[in-house]
Each structure stands twice: as structure tokens, then as C-alpha cells.
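Practice record 12: protein with pyridoxal-5'-phosphate.
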Amino acid sequence: MTDFKVPFIDLALRYQEEREEILACIDRVLSKGHLVLTEEVNEFEADVVRYTGARHCISMNSGTDALMIGMWAMGIGKGDEVITPPVSFVASTGSIAHIGAVPVYADVKDDQTIDPAEIEKRITPRTRAIMPVHWVGRIADMDAIRDIAKRHNIKIIEDAAQSMGAYYKGKHGGTFGDAGAVSAHPLKNLNALGDGGFLLTDDDEIAHKARLYRNHGLESRDNCAFYGVNSRLDVLNAEVLKFRLTRLKGVIDQRRRNANIYRKIIKPGHVQIPEEKSHEVVSYVMFITQADDRDRLQKFLAERGVQTLVYYGTALHLHKAAASLGYKRGDFPMAERQCDRVLALPHMQYLSEDQVAYAAELVNKFYGV
Ligand SMILES: *Cc1c(COP(=O)(O)O)cnc(C)c1O
């Protein structure tokens, strides 16, 4: 629970709303007494296939594992370069580094997705893949990115962690590349009771390899084809996610409604809100603005009961972990400027229109407009 009048997130409210259904999920699963890779897991995967239009869904422990296992299944590894934006959660870059590949950054556009023109400049003979990030649930410019990948014969692994329920030209996030990795982390729109994730792909071979890899490489109990890892989705979470998938559209519709209230009320000039283009449906895992005098605005809002978050304040190439990659401040001006100005406003599905309007009007008040 939170003391804010307009809280950013409140997962306890979610439990209040769904208590009966969630407890029924737990009861169903525990009563059966089978807790590893059961039919509930298969059913959840089949539901995701129906929802997204992907050919295969392979559920896993987390979105990060889905990124790593997806790239591994594509044959990406030591010394290969993967191009990715400096605006994301660290797991995008981290997953590339962890499989032994080299993260190569390309700057973003003003809507915070990777800039196809910048991707072109970073391609070398060692480039094996592009990892666009569908940040906040806005799909990157996949027509242009697919065109680049085709011309250079390189693969695409989508960081679709935030893009359940997000569309580009009517096509669901995570279904544009060779594979897409989705997260069911508690802060995503489709969220498990803890960690969870899944890989989407149309490629039978990637699907087959990833499915084995997430379960120790076991083809059967006594037949290990290769050494994999344990990255199975918990059965309890599969059952909860099955239920929550039926509520996902409602969650996103509320978040989109709240985003539109901000759009209507906040006066242009000091705060930029990326427009939603006619070919895109943004799922708004976060509602991100770019604000003048960001830190003072955040303090002003907090003092008046509005909780906001800087999502994130440091571009990925400027983290200590990235030191060996050899980048410096100034290399990605768009990303750096955005990190200095970014402010995520509260827009979760449990906020009333009045709460959102209150926050939006305070933003205008801060700038005296
Ligand atoms: C949440 C997130 C991840 C990581 O997903 P986990 O399920 O937490 O491992 C990766 N990339 C982006 C863009 C994310 O938002």
C-alpha cells in the first residue's frame, strides 16, 4: 500500500480485485499435485500463440532468459555483434553480453525506439543480429528494421519484454523477428506472481532448441541432447497467467485511457509526450514524458501526492558494466538527452479519471501554463 494520492503502482490493489480467481488458480494447481511442466504450462503457451499470432510460444523463467535462450537458439555467441539501443532496461544489453556476444549500440529516435538509420551505420562483418526494444510497449520501426536485416542477412531478436498487447500495423509485438522475448515480471502488463517470461517464434528449429534448452536439454528423462539450463515457467504462474491473459486487454485499455487524459490536459511546450501514430497501438507498460526541469517537477508532484519515476536516468552505455565496451558520454545524444529529461507519470489501471486529471493539472501548474 502507498501513501500517495496518485500512486505509480500498487500490486496489492491487483490482488484485491482478483483475490478469488487467484486463490482458485492456486487451489486448482496444488490440488492436482503436479508442479513441473504440466498441461497448464502447455495451455498457457497455446493461449499466447492464439493471442499473439506467433507460431510457437516457449514459456520460461523470465524475459531475460527468453532473450538469452532465443539468441542462443539462433546460433549467436562468442564474438558476434548484436545491435541494440542504449535506452532500455539493462537486461537487453546484459543478455547479449551473457551469451558471449558483443553489444553494439545504435541511438534512438525521439519516440525512444531504435533509429534504423543509426543501425545501418553500426553494421560490420561481425554483425549477426539486431535487438530492437519495444520500449514502454511501442513497437520499433519494424518495416525498416526487417529491411535492413534482410539486406545484410542478419537476424532479429526482439526485446518484446513490454509489448504484450502492443501492435504495429496490426501485427503483435514479438512476431516480427526471428524470435521475440516477452517478460511477465510483476511490473509488466501481463504479470506473473513473480518472475516469468516466454519466447515467441515462427521458426520450428529455434522453437525446438529453445524448448529443450530451458529444460536441461532433455529430450526425455534418460536422453540429454545437449546441456541446457533450468528455465521452466512455474505451473502456478502458468495458471495465473492464463487467467490474467483474459484480463490483459482491459488492463491496457485503462492505461491507454489514462494516457489520453494526460495528452488532453497537459499543455505543450515544456513536456513532450510521444504521439501515437495511426499504425501503432502502444500498450503503455510505462507512460513516459520528456520534461523540462525534470527533477524539480518530480519533487513538486511528490509534495502534492503524485508518485512518478525516472525510467531510466542513465543510458545503458554509461553504466559501469558497459565500461569495457568503450563508449563515452556524447556518443548517443538522443538517448542521453532523454535520460536527463525522462519522467514516467502514474497511469496504472486502478487510477480514476479524477486522479489522472489531478496529476495532469499539477504538471501545468508547475510550469505556470
Ligand atoms: C522487464 C524487461 C526485461 C527483463 O525481463 P525479466 O522478465 O524481468 O527478466 C528486458 N527488457 C526490457 C525492455 C524489460 O522491460
